[in-house]
Design goal:
The structure is a single chain. The protein is an alpha/beta fold. The chain has four domains: 158 residues, MoaB/Mog-like domain (Molybdenum Cofactor Biosythetic Enzyme, Chain A, 3-Layer(aba) Sandwich); 49 residues, Molybdopterin biosynthesis moea protein, domain 2 (Alpha-Beta Complex), CATH 3.90.105.10; 88 residues, Molybdopterin biosynthesis moea protein, domain 3 (Molybdopterin biosynthesis moeA protein, domain 3), CATH 2.170.190; 72 residues, Beta-clip. Helix content is 19%, strand content 30%. It contains eight helices and 27 strands. A hairpin with a 2-residue loop joins β23 and β24. The longest helix has 19 residues. The model has no long low-confidence stretch (mean pLDDT 95). One of its GO terms (molecular function) is metal ion binding. Its cofactor is Mg(2+). This is Molybdopterin molybdenumtransferase.
Length: 404
């Protein structure tokens, strides 16, 4: 029996749950989901401070200042950011103040340099400020106890800045899962090694490890495992203790050397066809309690299967929503055909013109065309019941490099 894409995706996601929260150093939290609400423990700003370089004054002392009738005040000191030696301003005086420095008690406005002669011992003020002009009041941005970020919010650069500003060195977040990546096949060789007449370089484990890292998880690339079930199981079990998820490529079809299927069927792992092209042979199960997703070995099938089944699992482990990459609509620039009864994921190149988003098919449907895959930035998703689409038709696409 052939499963639908949704059925196999549900099988995988039913076995994973968000990882338990941990305290994460602030910069390491970039891209992670918060596990609890964050409330402000302080006000921002934490004190009234100057929005300009100028002079802090009592407004009543300079209310009548003008070009025709300037006001002259003695300068009783200087306040720089982090150098607030003057705490109180008496009537009839001014204090030089820098942007961000605390406004002294008694002052209720700041006169910018441009309105003065920039005097050091006395200052001539030629324009009267409005009440509280150029003063940033305490708590103007954030107040103590205010809800700043809700649980589930993803920490980005702007959120890191806010969290640092309120004094947090760590945050409670869902950690990055460790994802073990294995490639199977006696024909595989490490890049840089010499190839024989019947060998190929292992691109899958590098591609999948890079995809794991791009998803925000920690890849553990084990490398190549030959076509021997015992060696495969030994290698797998050696990495299970520290793994949150395992991804294999190859050895899941109907061949004589499908080592992954042979080794893992005895462990209760499900294998079967999914109604999609490419990526029909799939497998999934728990081995020693660790989710193991087995992907086909052809590189395009492997990558597309990662996008459809593994990426949502990683995002679920990380507590990120939505789990699956959202689809958007685009205009098809060229017609294409698709097999009946299978959901086709065709490589495409998305762009924009005066009519909006468009997508151009890249390469053919074959699952070995990694060159076309590398030159695409999207997958055109053709439903199972659709066998042909024409130029100008609207299609659903997954934009592979978009942040979500």
């Amino acid at each position: 029996m052939t499963d639908t894409v949704e059925e196999h995706q549900a099988r995988v996601l039913a076995a994973v749950r968000p990882a338990d929260p941990v305290d994460v150093p602030l910069l390491d939290a970039l891209g992670l989901a918060l596990a609890e609400d964050v409330h402000a423990g302080i006000d921002l700003p934490g004190f009234d401070n100057s929005a300009m370089d100028g002079y802090a004054v009592r407004r009543a002392d300079v209310a009548d200042a003008s070009e025709a009738s300037p006001v002259v005040l003695p300068v009783v000191g200087q306040i720089g950011a982090g150098q607030a030696d003057v705490r109180t301003l008496e009537a009839g005086a001014a204090v030089k103040i820098m942007t961000g420095a605390p406004v002294p008690e008694g002052a209720d406005a700041v006169v910018p340099y441009e309105w003065t002669d920039r005097g050091a011992e006395t200052v001539t003020i030629r324009q009267a400020p409005k009440p509280s002009q150029h003063v940033r009041p305490r708590g103007d941005d954030v107040t103590t106890g205010q809800l700043l970020l809700e649980a589930g919010a993803v920490v980005g650069p702007r959120q890191v800045g806010l969290l640092a500003q309120i004094g947090l060195a760590t945050v409670r977040a869902r950690p990055r899962p460790r994802v073990v990546v294995l490639s199977t096949g006696s024909e595989l060789r490490e890049p840089g090694a010499e190839l024989g007449h019947d060998s190929i370089y292992d691109g899958n484990s590098f591609m999948l490890a890079a995809a794991v890292q791009r998803a925000g998880a920690v890849p553990v690339r084990v490398g190549i495992v030959g076509d021997e079930p015992g060696a495969f199981l030994t290698t797998l079990r050696a990495h299970l203790a520290d793994a949150d998820l395992v991804v294999t490529s190859g050895g899941v079809s109907q061949g004589d050397y499908d080592v992954v299927k042979e080794a893992l069927r005895a462990e209760g792992v499900w294998f079967g066809p999914v109604a999609m092209q490419p990526g029909k042979p799939q497998g999934f199960g728990l081995v020693d309690g660790v989710p193991v997703v087995t992907l086909p070995g052809n590189p395009v099938s492997s990558y597309i299967s990662f996008e459809v089944f593994v990426l949502p699992a990683i995002r679920t482990l990380m507590g990120l929503a939505p789990a699956a990459r959202p689809m958007v609509t685009a205009r098809l620039t060229h017609g294409l055909t698709s097999p009946d009864g299978r959901r086709q994921f065709m490589r495409g190149d998305v762009g924009f013109d005066a009519q909006g988003r468009f997508v151009t098919p890249v390469g053919g449907p074959a699952s070995h065309l990694v060159g076309a895959l590398a030159h695409s930035n999207a997958l055109i998703v053709v439903p199972e019941e659709v066998t042909a689409l024409g130029q100008g038709d609207r299609v659903q696409v997954l934009q592979l490099d978009s942040v979500f």
